[in-house]
């Protein structure tokens, strides 16, 4: 208890002092960014230690930080759920901090120092969000997190596009926060307390309507931050324009704090009392995952692609939460534990590989100064390490063994099948299998998207001057990516570690956990107790290795001896040029056609002929995707709002006579009302 | 018939006369006449005040009567006439409505004020039988003058009318306010009229008109 | 004696300007306002410690509530006069104001301060009315000080609409006086609100009801409650920026103070939450009406003025909610808003002097052009829209909490939703001004040190009060809440 308390204080103080010093030393930006990020690194080590201690010992850490007024105080409570999220955040910050040391050279002197300070504040806010134990404190740090991340997003505020993205981000997240405010106040109204611990005891006994309202509000409020469809519109705008190390943290970690909030409210406070919540979350999650990846697939901006992929992953995590709720409601606690483990493990995995991918994209950006995939290509020769790490990230996210993404997606599909088999209701069974199909299909689309992201970025010949002149990034950036890549591999091969960390969390929520203490063989072989939730990553890996060898041998046996001859790529006799390569636009075209109801692509082809129609001149080609949600949902709403506002503005007509008559009318109305 | 009753009837009659004066303010078309009517109304008010002082035998009300006569009867109209001369505008009251409509609205407002005030509300004071509705009428009519007239000076007239209504009410229902308050009120009124005069003068200089309907550039 | 001194210092300072040499202006201005602030703070602290002070046979009465308002008035008046020093010098330099008129500016400014102080220290509702009307008169010429078309138009609307409003308030006071006289008899303290508060239970509820309506409309006009607020955006945007700070930060509060006083009486006399409900309704309407005007605003200072309408609405709403939490939140918010809004008007002053326009569309890259002011603009706008960790977040949190705890779920949700919309609008405009590239013709360079010094005072309160409300401050608020709940 004392140790963990000290760790907590040490971490907070280190990060805060680092930020402060960075501000004070802003003249010397090298020193100041170094201090800021070393501080966040050290602070995160402390937090990691704290998280591990709490998860191992099961001892909650409670601290009362300060009190502003009788109704506004800030208390800390680190229980297993908080500890797990602390772990997720600190693992990410560890690698991103190292990475930032090099990456910040992109920014000119003063700005870098400022950026370092705000970065630390952002990290601090995230740590506090998942540990605070009362309403005032939570809303305080939640809003601080939003504001601070806004400032990080608009680092390049000289560009109009960046300012716009930042504005949409902060407005969406603020509007979402209103719902969070309301749901907490409703809880307060019914419990008479602002402490989370009192919500836990009273929450499950609340009236049905109240619980349902809280559910809906938390889904909207936290869903906006998490980026569920159709509240996601800020995410693909804000994450790409932020500096890459910030995008990494925002996409990898910050949106997970919303999942934390959702778990806190639905599982911890309300103890999930209704099945329809589960179904709703499951369907929304599936929808988000599918549509998210479809948008990612046709995206030409590398970072935007990653942002959409985050939307997809949030969908997967939500789907697993939905499955957990349904299974728990039907009394299958043990199965619910599998589903929850799948979701939470995926959350951990996603934070790691999304960090890795964003850092990789940042490295590419650092080297080529472009985010447009169509202008890249051939980088694997110039940036081999970056390419390797990016490939690991891409394989993880595409759920390929032996990396971590495979484990969690596998478990998720298993839990869906479990759901389909165990639930008595036929309609629910149907939903389960359909969702399983959709998610599996989405998985395939993810693979396609990352084949494109990796292939077009790193393979073939450079398609632009910038790409041709790219150089490998500094060692600190590679180290940051390397750490994350290692995590991907370790968790993919030894998922037991993840299950072990998760067991107190799933136990707290569902009453069961997947981890067992059955010794070494179990660690390498199953890692799960029930037959249904079992997974044997090493066996799978071994099987794959055998399969590859078998294929090679088979090919050798059947095809006989082959001869290797190195020569130029055959191009029908023309000289090889970058224009012949497959572009991102070309790659996406089939998908645009398949998903044209969702994407509503708009293509314009202008041919100008020298001698029509045989001798072609210049062909201009334009293609863009119609942002469906913005065009058909947000814009009409916005227009309506602005138009009606403009109508209301007419009351301030400028005429003093009208103004006086307002007073007159108000008076008369009140006199009549009072009589 | 007791003397108290007689006095109260006299006060009633005088109160109605003040109301009638405001009516003629609404009907009149020349600014000069309006100011003179205002002065007349103030003198009448001063008379009522004196009467109340006599009936109630409270000394400081005489004092109030004297100030009313001095400030509202002479000083305020003088300031207004001085401003009028300084800015030498066309001596016409401009209204948004026709005279007929003005009168109809005024009558409706009077009916409303008699309607909303319950007769027993101020029953404790015999002097105040009709003064509450008359006061409210004056207040509403004053506001109506401000709303319907374009000239800046007419808005000042509206304010003074409202204030007169209030004054009538204080005198007849509560024998005036405490002296300190009353002094403050007169002081405020005087300074207020002077400041409005200054502003009207400057507006006329800058805009070349004191038609407040033209003062509508600040919107939204 | 102290209350009288407090009142007299600004009057003496003001009249000095009519006689002294121009070179002494700055010194006298600074000394006078400093003396007034020190006296005001000293007086307030002594009231906080020793309890209410009565003076001049009960005409003046300062209890803990008035002392609280005095603290706000004296701090912001000092800041505003300090800020005036350089601001007005630059205005003269730009030729917006003739140098010879400066003495009148300072004369009116200090006179204005003294009238506001008078409002807070009198006991008699009638004298309070006189003082409030005096604030209008003293500030009307300040509003029209630039003597341009727009400022004259604003001044005219200000003085006419507020005088009409205040006449209604007088009507209400007369009704109250009448009902009080019928209980107390003809006595000089029949209008003293201490006395009224004591006998509130015996007053004729129907009369008090009527009187509260008139007072709410009347003083509400002056306080800027919608829909009587129409003069406010004109006046607050056309006045010189230091005066805008005073108008928005202090003047509105002093009038609200008068409504608050009468609300106590009405609440006791009428009961049934009559006055509370009215306050809540007017509060919400005021918040709501600010939304479209802030979102579709073109003028920086007008936007701030509408934000004042909003914040006065918030305080009124909170007072209407009542209860320990509501009143505590209202008082805290009163203080926080005064600080944040005066900061914002000074920021606006700096920006308009730099860019020579109030049109937000023409202002860009403030952070590049004037970095300190730009930073304060960002902090100020986050503070005023209720973002943590700044002071207003805490008070708005408490107020919303109070609403929900009383079961006013719909009102509470409306409150939060409207605030979020206002955030959207203000932040949109502020971000557009603060960020981006500055126009080429604007040279970088911060404003003067005195301006920044004046701005740091409210800034300090904004930064600290969100996370730390000093215990004695909290205790003072608790005591006022006790007083208000009777």
Task: Describe the secondary-structure layout.
The complex is a heterotrimer of chains A (675), B (220) and C (486).
Chain A: H1 2-24, H2 29-57, E1 61-69, E2 72-78, H3 80-103, H4 109-129, H5 135-153, H6 160-191, H7 196-202, H8 208-226, H9 235-241, H10 244-269, H11 275-297, H12 302-329, H13 333-368, H14 379-382, H15 384-397, H16 404-422, H17 426-458, H18 465-468, H19 475-493, H20 495-510, H21 520-525, H22 537-559, H23 584-594, H24 596-599, E3 601-611, E4 615-625, H25 628-648, H26 656-674
Antiparallel strand pairs in A: 1-2, 3-4
Helix pairs in contact in A: 1-2, 1-4, 2-3, 2-4, 3-10, 3-13, 3-19, 4-5, 5-6, 6-8, 6-9, 8-10, 9-10, 9-12, 10-12, 10-13, 11-12, 11-17, 12-13, 12-16, 12-17, 13-15, 13-16, 13-19, 13-20, 15-17, 15-19, 16-17, 16-19, 19-20
Chain B: H1 3-27, H2 31-56, H3 59-87, H4 99-116, H5 131-148, H6 152-174, H7 179-207
Chain C: H1 2-16, H2 25-50, E1 53-55, E2 60-62, H3 64-94, H4 102-121, H5 125-143, H6 149-184, H7 193-198, H8 205-223, H9 231-238, H10 241-270, H11 274-295, H12 300-321, H13 323-355, H14 366-369, H15 371-384, H16 391-405, H17 409-434, H18 449-465, H19 471-485
Antiparallel strand pairs in C: 1-2
